[in-house]
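Slide 14.
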Amino acid sequence: TSLEEFLKGDKLYVVKEKRNSKYTAFPPGEVVKRAKSALGKHKGKYNLFSHNCEHFAYWCKYGVSESGQIQNLMEAVKIILAGMILA
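Slide 15: predicted structure.
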C-alpha cells in the first residue's frame, strides 16, 4: 500500500518514542532502506502477537522484531492468571 493510499487523505503523525538504550538504532537512511526492502514481502501475514506494526517498526529501526505493547499485555495476563490461581 502506498503512503497516500494508507492515509486516505488523513494527516500523517510522527510519534517520537522514548529512547531505547536496549538496542542501537540504525541511521535514519538505513531504517528507511530496511522498511522499503520489506514492502510487499509479508502481505497477509499480519499477526497481532508476533508480526504487528510495532514488530515491523522495531525490525526496521533496531533489527529485532519486538513489541513492547504485546510484552506488557503478556505480563498483565500472567499477573491476572497468577491471581486467579492463588484465589
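Speaker note: The helical segments are 3-7, 28-38, 53-62, 68-86.
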